[in-house]
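ERR on first pass: missing label on line 2. Operator R.T. fixed the label and resubmitted. Corrected input:
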Amino acid sequence: MSILESKYKAVRTMTRSLAANLSAEDQMVQSCPEASPVKWHQAHTTWFFETFILRPFLPGYRPFRDEFHRLFNSYYISLGEKISAKKLRAAFSRPTLNEILAFRAHVDQEMERLFSCSIDQEVARRILLGLNHEQQHQELGLTDIKHAFFSNPIGPSYGSAPMPKERTHPAYQLRWFDFEGGLTGIGYPLNAGDPLDFCFDNETPRHKVYLEPFQIASCMVTCRDYLEFMSDDGYIRPELWLSDGWDSVQQAGWEAPLYWERDSTDATGWRVFTLKGWHGLAGLLDTALCHVSFFEADAFARWRGCRLPTEAEWESAAIKERRHGNLLDTGRLHPTRANGAGLEQLFGDCWEWTASPHTGYPGYKPLPGALGEYNGKFMSSQMIVRGGSCVTPADHIRATYRNFIHPAMRWQFTGIRLAI
Amino acid sequence: MSILESKYKAVRTMTRSLAANLSAEDQMVQSCPEASPVKWHQAHTTWFFETFILRPFLPGYRPFRDEFHRLFNSYYISLGEKISAKKLRAAFSRPTLNEILAFRAHVDQEMERLFSCSIDQEVARRILLGLNHEQQHQELGLTDIKHAFFSNPIGPSYGSAPMPKERTHPAYQLRWFDFEGGLTGIGYPLNAGDPLDFCFDNETPRHKVYLEPFQIASCMVTCRDYLEFMSDDGYIRPELWLSDGWDSVQQAGWEAPLYWERDSTDATGWRVFTLKGWHGLAGLLDTALCHVSFFEADAFARWRGCRLPTEAEWESAAIKERRHGNLLDTGRLHPTRANGAGLEQLFGDCWEWTASPHTGYPGYKPLPGALGEYNGKFMSSQMIVRGGSCVTPADHIRATYRNFIHPAMRWQFTGIRLAI
Amino acid sequence: MSILESKYKAVRTMTRSLAANLSAEDQMVQSCPEASPVKWHQAHTTWFFETFILRPFLPGYRPFRDEFHRLFNSYYISLGEKISAKKLRAAFSRPTLNEILAFRAHVDQEMERLFSCSIDQEVARRILLGLNHEQQHQELGLTDIKHAFFSNPIGPSYGSAPMPKERTHPAYQLRWFDFEGGLTGIGYPLNAGDPLDFCFDNETPRHKVYLEPFQIASCMVTCRDYLEFMSDDGYIRPELWLSDGWDSVQQAGWEAPLYWERDSTDATGWRVFTLKGWHGLAGLLDTALCHVSFFEADAFARWRGCRLPTEAEWESAAIKERRHGNLLDTGRLHPTRANGAGLEQLFGDCWEWTASPHTGYPGYKPLPGALGEYNGKFMSSQMIVRGGSCVTPADHIRATYRNFIHPAMRWQFTGIRLAI
Amino acid sequence: MSILESKYKAVRTMTRSLAANLSAEDQMVQSCPEASPVKWHQAHTTWFFETFILRPFLPGYRPFRDEFHRLFNSYYISLGEKISAKKLRAAFSRPTLNEILAFRAHVDQEMERLFSCSIDQEVARRILLGLNHEQQHQELGLTDIKHAFFSNPIGPSYGSAPMPKERTHPAYQLRWFDFEGGLTGIGYPLNAGDPLDFCFDNETPRHKVYLEPFQIASCMVTCRDYLEFMSDDGYIRPELWLSDGWDSVQQAGWEAPLYWERDSTDATGWRVFTLKGWHGLAGLLDTALCHVSFFEADAFARWRGCRLPTEAEWESAAIKERRHGNLLDTGRLHPTRANGAGLEQLFGDCWEWTASPHTGYPGYKPLPGALGEYNGKFMSSQMIVRGGSCVTPADHIRATYRNFIHPAMRWQFTGIRLAI
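pass 2 clean. output:
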C-alpha cells in the first residue's frame, strides 16, 4: 500500500472513530450559524473525494446518489446551488446517518479501486488536499459538537473518559524570548520530492519580510491571568477595546469567555464547559485560556501593556521549534498547562490570535477552478490564528499554517500569546 | 375499564402510531420557529400528565427524571423557566427518542395505577384536558413534520400510502345558504352528566349575540378558484389587501399558497407538497384550497365581492350539521373535494378563517392556576379558525370549538369559506 | 360665508397656529417610525385638499408643484408610489418649510375660489372629510412633537405657557356605574339634513348588539393607581400579561409608562415628560395615567381583578353623556384629574383602550376609490380606543368615534378606564 | 499673526463657507447611519477646540453652554456618554443652527484670546490636530450632504455653479509604472523644526518594509472601464468576489456604483448624482470611477487580471510625486479625467482602495488620553485608502496619509487604481 493510501485510510478511519460516540440525533444538531451537524461533516468530506477525484478521474465511477452532489456542497459557488444546501442543514433528517455511512463506504471502496491504478501527480495532489480538508472538518466537528452539547440543557459529555487531572508541579514563570528581527523569509517552501508534502495555497509564495526586534512570551495566557483582567473591570472599560470589539461586548453582553458560566459552588465563582462536561474553574486555573475572540485577546494584551504578535513574528519564532504539543492525538480535548520548559505551547492547546488580518502573500495565486475557492475568497475581515489546538490532528499542523477566523468568533479553540 | 381509561389508551396509542413512520432524526427537526420537533410533542404531552395529574394526585408517584419537569414545559410561565426549553428544541439531541419513549411508558404505567384508584371529578377533568391537549399536539405533529419534509431538499413523504385518487363526479355548483340572523346563543353548553363531556375554557360562557341576516357558501374555496385569483393579479393589487396583509406579501414575497411550487411539467404550472410527497396541482384542482393565511383569505374574499363569516355566523350555521368530514381518521391527510350535497366541508379538510379576532366571550374566566394559561393569554392579534382539518382527530372537533392563529401564519391546514 | 367655509378657515388656521411655536428644524424631526415631521403633516393635509377636491372639482386649478402629488401621499396605495415618500420623510430638508407654507397659502386661496362657486354634495362631503383628516393630523403633530422633544437631549418644551397647577380639592372616590345591557344600537346615525354632519365610514352602519349587564368606572385610572401596580411587581409577573404583551415587556424593557424617567429628586422617584417639559410625578399623581399600551392597560385591569370595557359597552355608556372634557381646546395639553362628579373623563384626557379589536361593523362598506383606504384596510391587529384626548380638537370627537392603535404602541395619549 | 493663527482662521472660515449654501433644514439631515448632519459637524469640530484646548489651557475660559460638552462628543468614550449624543443626531432640532453658529463665534473669539498669549508646544500640537480634525469633517460634511440630497426625492444640488465641462483631448493610454521594490521606508518622518508639521499617529513610526517588484497604473479606473465590467456580468459572477463581498452584493442588491441610477434617456443607460445634481453618464465616461466599495474595487481588479496595490506600494510610488490634483480647492467637487501625463491622479479625485487592512505600524503607540482614541481603536475590519479626493482640502493630504474605511462602504469618494 502506498504512503498516500495509508494516509487516506488513517484519516478516513479517524473521522468515523471521532463520530462513534455520537447518536444519529447528536449528529443532526446545529446549535449556532457557524456550526454544522456532524452528519454533514461526514458527508461533505466524502463529497469532496467524489466530486474532485472520483467523478473526474476514476473511469466508470458511478456516483452514490445524484442529489448528493448538490446536497453536500458547502461553499464552492462555482459548482452552483450552495445556498439551498446551507439553509437546509437544520432540516436535515434525510438522508439518514445510515445513508451517509453507506456513502462513505461506497467512496472508500471506489478510492481503493483508484489507488490500485497508477495515480498521476494532479490526482495525488487532490487526494492530499482532500485529506487535509477532512482533517479540518475533524476539528470542526469536535468544535461544533462542543457547542451543541453546551446548548443542550442536559449538558452531555463527549465520550466517557474523564478529564485528566492537571499535573501539579513547581510554578513556572512566564519568560520573554528575544528575537532580533531583520530581513527573514516566511511561507511554505514546497518540497517536490516528498509525496506527502503539502501546504494550503495561502501559505505561499514564500517571501521576505522585514521585522523589527521583538519579544514573545514563553507560554500562553492562562485562565488565572484572564480572571485578573476580568476582576480589573476588563469587560467594562471601553478604553481597552477596539471600537468594533466594544460594540461586540455591548451587543453580545460578553462578561467572560465562551463556555464560562457563573457557579457559586466553585472557589472562583465560575465553571467551564469542556468536551468532557462541566468543570469547576478552580481546577483549571493554570491551563491555557480558551474560547476568546480576537477582540478579547486584543483587549487583554492592551490591558497588560503588551500586544499580540504579528503572524510573521509568530512564524519566525515557531519555525525552529519542534512540532509537538497538546494536539488532538493526546486525547485530552482541552487545553492544558505550560511546564516552564522554554518556548512552549506553540502547537496545540489553542489557536493563537495574531495581530495580522488574513491577506494574500505577495504574488499569491489561488488554485485554478473550484478548488481555488478554498482560502482566497476569505481574505477580508478575518484574522490569522496560528499553531493549532487540542482538537487539531497532530500531522495536520505546521509553523507556516495560516488559519483565519472572524474577529468576533469564539466557538473555536482560540487563545492568547503575548508579544512586546 | 372506564370510558375515560379507554379514551386515555386510545389517544396515547394514536400518538405513538402517528410517530411510528418517523426516524429518530425526523423527530428532531424544527424547520420553522412556529413548529416543534415530533420528539418534543411526544415528551410534552406526557409531561402534561406527569405535571398536572400524577405529581399532585397519585400517592407515591416518582417522577421519571427530575429535569424533564423543566425541559418539556412549553409555555406555562407560572411553572417557571419556559424560555430555556423553548430555545433549546433545536439542540435537542438528548434526551434521545428512546428515553422519551421510556418516559411515555413510565407515565402510562402510572396512569394505569391511577385509573385503578377512584378518580374524583377534578382529576377526571384534568385527564380529559390532557387528552384533548394531546390530540392538539397530534395535529401539530403532523403539521410540523409536513413543514420539515417540505424543507428537506429530498422532500420525503410521510408514510407510504399513496395519495388517494380524487373521485370524478358531475360538477357541483357552489350554493349560498341563507340564515335569517336575530338573537341567538353561541358557546358550549356544558353537560354535567356526561363523563367525556368537554370543551376548552374559551368556548364559554354560552351567551347571546345578535346577528344580521347572512348567507354562507355551501363548500370551501377550491384550488381552481384560487388560481383564478392569482391569474387576476391577486398578489400584486394592493387594493385587495389589508394593510398588514400587503406588508406580509411584500416582506415574505408571497405569490402562491404555502407548499405550492412552480412546476413547468404540470398543466397548471404548479405542484403541491403534501404529506404524501409532491403532486401536480392539475390533479387537485377541485380540492379545498389549503395553507393560506388570514390575509390571503381576506384578500380572496374581497376580490370575489364577498367576505369571511364571523365566528358567530359560522357557529350558528354549523351547530345543526352532523359532525363528520375529512378528518384525521380518514387517513387522507390532505383536503378533498366537495360533492355537492348541502352545506358541506364544515368539519375537516381545512380550518376555516373567520373575520373574528380571538377575544374572550362576555364573562369569560380562564381556569385557575397554570392550566389557565391555555387560551386566555393568546387573546390578542390572533384570528379565530373553525371546523378542524384533515389532520384533526374526529372526536376532537365540534361546532363550538375555537382555534386561533396569527393572521400571517400559513403552516397550519387553513382554508376559506365565503359569506355574504 | 357658509358654515362649511367658516369651518374650513377655522381648522386650517388652527393647524398653522399649532405649528407656530416650532422652528423649521423642529418641524423636520421624525424621532420614531410611527411619527412624522410636523412639516410633513402641514403638507400632507394640504395635499388632501389638492388631490381629492381641487384637482377633480375646481375648473382651471393649477397644482402648486407637480412633484408634491407624489411627495405628500402617505398611504393611499391606489394613488401609487407611497413607499418612496414614506421613506424620505427623514431626508426631508427640501421642500423647505417656507415652500410648504406657500403651498398651504396657494391651496387656501384656491379653496376660497371653490367656495365662491356652488358646491355639490360630493364636494361638501369631501371637504368635511378633509377637515376631519386635518384635525387628526393636528393631534398627530402634537403627539409626534412630544416624542421629538422627549428624544432631544435638551428636552425642550412646546410653547412657553407653564403647566397649570392641579386643583386640590376633597378626594373623590372611584364609583361604578351600572348598565343593564340587553339589545341596543351602536354606530353613527347619519343625519342628512345637517351640512356639518359627519362620521368616518368605520362608525357605520348603525346596528344592534346584545350586551350582558356591566359596570363601568366613573373615571380613568390615575398615575397613583398605576404606581401601585408597579410597586406590586406588575412589570415582572408574567401571569398578569397577554402572551404578546409579555413579549413586548421583555423585548422593549418596559418598566414604566412611556415618558416616565427615574428621578431621585422627586418624592415618587419619577419624573414625567409633558408638552411643557419635565415635571415631577408627585405633582401629577391624581391625573389620568397616560402613554400606556393596550398590553399594559390589559395587565393593569387583570391585576385589579377588573377588565377593559368593550367598545359597545363604552359607547352605550357614553352616548348619553355631554361631549365635553379636557380636549385640545383647554390648552392644558396634558391629562388632568377627575373631580368626582358622575361618569366623567369620557371625552378628552386620554384615549381609552377597549377590549375590542378594530373590525368592520356588520355590513360595513368602505368609501369607493382611494378615499376608501382610510379605515377599512387597518382592520387587523389593532385595538379600538375611544373618547379622544387632551390633544384632540373638541369638535372632532363624539361617542361613536372609533380610533384604532396597535396594541404595543405608547406614543399616543392613551389611558385606562376599568369595567366589570 | 502667527502662521498657526492664520491657519486656524483659514480652516474655520472654510467650514462656514462650505455650509453657507445650506439651509438650517439641510443641515439637520442624516440620511444614513454613517453620515452626520452638517450642523453637527459644525458643532463637533468646535467642541474639539473647547474640550481639548480652551477648557484645559485658557485661564478663565467659560464654556459656551454646559450641556454642549456631552452633546457634541462623537466617539471619545473616555469622555463619557457618547451613546446618547450619537443616537440623537436624528432628533437634533435643538440647539438650533443659530445657537451652533453662536457657539462657533464664541470659541473663535476665545481662541483669539489664546493666540494672544504664548502658546506652548503641547497646545500648538493640539491646535494642529484640531485643524486637521476639522478638515476631515469638511470632507465628511460634503460627503454626507451629497447622500442627503441624493436621498431627497427632489434631488437638490449643492451650490449653483454648474458642473464644468470635461476637456476633450487626445485619448490617453493607461501605462504601467515599474518599481523595483526591495527594502524601503514608509511612514511619516516628523520634522521638529516646522511649526505646521503634522501627521496622524497612525502614520508613525516610520519603518522598513520589504517590497517585491511591482507595477502600478498611471491613472485611475474610469467609468468607461467599469461599465465594461458591468457588461461582462461583473455583479453576477460570484467567482470574481471575496466571500464577504458577494454577501454584500446579494444583501444590498448592488448592480452599479452608488449614485448611479438607470436612465433610458442617456446613451449609456445611466445617470449619476453629483454635488451639482444629476448628470448623464455619457458625459462622464472618462472621469475616474467613484463611490465603489473595497469589495467592488477588489472584484474589478480580479476581473481585469490585476490586483489592488498594498499601501506600502502606493506610498513608495507616491512619495516622489508632487502633491497636487483635483482636490477640494479646485471647486469641481467631482472626479475628473486623467490627461496622460505620467503617474497621475495620485492625489485628489478619489481615495484609492489598497489591499491593506488598517493595522498599527510596528511600534505604533496612540496619543495618550482621549486624543488617543482617534485612529488606534479603528484598527480592525477596515481597509486603507490613500491619496485624498475631490472633497479633501489640498493642504490636508500627503503621501503618508492613511485613511481607513469599512470594506462595504460606498458613500465616501472612493475609487480604484490597479497594480500588478
